[in-house]
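Please check what follows.
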Amino acid sequence: MNILLICKRHYTNKDLIREKFGRLYHFPHYWHAAGHAVTVIAADYLSFHNSVHDIDGMICHSLGFPSLLADFLMRVRGIARNTRPDIVIASGDSHIGYIGLRLARKSGVPFVFDLYHHYADFGSNRIPGMKSMYYRALQDADLVVCDSLPLQHKVAPRARRTMIAAQGTDPAQFRSLDKATCRQQLALDPDATYIGYTGALDSRFDYDCLTSAMESIIDRGRPLRLLVAGPNIARYDLDRDYIDYLGTLPQERIPQVINACDVMCIPYRNTELASTCNPCKLSEYIYCGLPLVASSISNITQYLPVSAERCYTPGEPAALAAAIVRQLDDPLPEPPDSSLTWQAIGQHYLDALSGLGNPASG
């Protein structure tokens, strides 16, 4: 099978090409390893330049999106003519989905719209026409792939056919490491108790709830430190004396951060964007063997059969504080589940792609 994937080069503040991060790298990488021809077109919003990269045998065309849109579309069509895909997949935002749909119809092949969020909730969809493109791509796609059950439920009324391919993890990278060694590598206090968070500090991140919970525990005489790694998109105050902020680190160093901690947190608000999310960090924390505390948003509790009772209602600092203390005093890490790996999910996804017949009209 000849697969053409159109996506964004930068995904959750990670560079798909440089850091080999997330579903936009791991799924096509698995399909290529399984013997299929895979070509990636990555729209680079931060550059005017075009380049071609070999990523573990996959050909990736990085196309500068800020340049003339007509030039971008012309190059996309040219790549499609040269590669003659059997299927077109698009992921990343509403307009990328629409471009993928039109390209697939012009090529006479099935179109798959891959969603890792409800793209209509993205800030970019305030631009006139964006939501119309999103819903047209949903409606006409031969298959809509969602990363969570709540997202599938949300888009199913508009789609012909849906399935779930959740966010996964790479066990070769995310695994249990020696805590003392990780703390030494990160120049951390070897004796402190660390509560950790990795990833973007954006509108989903409940800074007020987490800091209130931390301070209530500290005020009761239990010293804690908060270890954070990720871009501070929302510009939260990270200068508090109990916060160690490491900034944005390369993907390969994130397992060090996780394994340096005692408990990991996913303190998300119950926003529109968070209500359907399936964060990569969830399976990463599990595979590193760390006990975790998460807010009860989306379907996160379904991935925590051992510690679901230690999730908390979003926006309740007292409940978050109690959950953190419970995980410190009586840790309940989740056992690694092979169904959460990119390999297992990638094969499930590939089976669905192989089963697509002739493209629907539209």
